[in-house]
């Protein structure tokens, strides 16, 4: 059975994966964009507080993607943000033998709710913790970034390269938003308030990763590890030439248990500098 799944996965990855892009665009076109700037009050719900929101668009887009993606790759499963919220045991699939689609239907729900186009649909295909392919789609901006493990990254079909910051220039760094951090996390992230570094609160995590991959943001430093927020972006940055690691200097594991915070950056040198500052918090 395991060999059959692996063979099916290998065959799938050898294709052009265009059907995945079509599924993502369709979910956004039918469930997300028609509700952008059109949400009724009863279509918005707080999950864990006033800053942690979910909308009917999140739920319906995830349901549609779950059906579409598992149909494209028989034997695969989905770990979606809303499914995990309803049943945390769903997370266990990240460490299982089946290929897993990691889905964040609306990354940046707060932006979506407030009519800000800076939100995205994130999808990543992984197997036994290894990131294989990812899609970062900003439907209101008409931008789609795709990455394949070992195959590079593109944005709207154009190759992405993260490059390196100009020597001597202040580094721009997106960090976990203050509304979502504990006092201890704020203390550690405050180590980036130093000469040569300009930290700012992050928006949509997926779009911050895209900014690193395209070289318009030098690095990010995040203090939470939800796989659906990070899987797609981590592969995108890696395939664009960037690098990432936890504060312990280890690769980020989508299955969890990471030393936090962690960082992704345009190059290894920038990553090392950011991680060094974060580690100085002790």
TrEMBL record:
Catalytic activity line of the entry: a myo-inositol phosphate + H2O = myo-inositol + phosphate
Keywords: Hydrolase, Magnesium, Metal-binding
Domain of life: Bacteria
Membrane-spanning segments: none
Its EC number(s): 3.1.3.25
Enzyme kind, highest EC tier: hydrolase
UniProt cross-references to InterPro entries, sorted A to Z: Inositol_monoP_metal-BS, Inositol_monophosphatase-like, Inositol_monophosphatase_CS
SUPFAM superfamilies, A to Z: Carbohydrate phosphatase
Gene3D superfamilies: 3.40.190.80, Fructose-1,6-Bisphosphatase, subunit A, domain 1
PANTHER family: INOSITOL MONOPHOSPHATASE, INOSITOL-1-MONOPHOSPHATASE-RELATED
Protein name, as recorded: inositol-phosphate phosphatase
High-level lineage: Bacteria, Bacillati, Actinomycetota, Actinomycetes, Kitasatosporales
């Amino acid at each position: 059975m395991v060999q059959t799944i692996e063979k099916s996965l290998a065959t799938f990855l050898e294709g052009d994966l265009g059907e995945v892009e079509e599924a993502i665009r369709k979910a956004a076109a039918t469930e997300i964009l028609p509700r952008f700037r059109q949400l009724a009050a009863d279509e918005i719900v707080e999950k864990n507080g006033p800053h942690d929101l979910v909308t009917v668009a999140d739920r319906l887009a995830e349901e549609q993607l779950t059906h579409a993606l598992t149909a494209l790759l028989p034997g695969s499963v989905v770990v979606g943000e809303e499914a995990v919220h309803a049943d945390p045991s769903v997370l266990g699939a990240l460490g299982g033998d089946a290929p897993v689609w990691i889905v964040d239907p609306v990354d940046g729900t707060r932006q979506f709710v407030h009519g800000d186009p800076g939100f995205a649909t994130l999808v990543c295909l992984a197997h036994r913790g290894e990131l294989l392919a990812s899609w970062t789609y900003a439907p209101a901006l008409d931008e789609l970034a795709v990455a394949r493990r070992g195959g590079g990254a593109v944005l709207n079909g154009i190759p992405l390269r993260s490059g390196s910051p100009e020597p001597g220039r202040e580094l721009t760094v997106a960090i976990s938003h203050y509304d979502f951090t504990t006092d201890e996390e704020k203390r550690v992230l405050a180590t980036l308030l130093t000469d040569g570094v300009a930290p700012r609160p992050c928006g949509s995590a997926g779009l911050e990763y895209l900014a690193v991959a395209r070289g318009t943001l030098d690095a990010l430093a995040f203090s939470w590890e939800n796989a659906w927020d990070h899987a797609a972006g981590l592969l995108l940055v890696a395939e664009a030439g960037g690098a990432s690691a936890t504060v312990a200097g280890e690769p980020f594991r989508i299955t969890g248990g990471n030393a936090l915070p962690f960082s992704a950056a345009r190059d290894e040198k920038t990553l090392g500098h950011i991680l060094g500052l974060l580690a100085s918090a002790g």
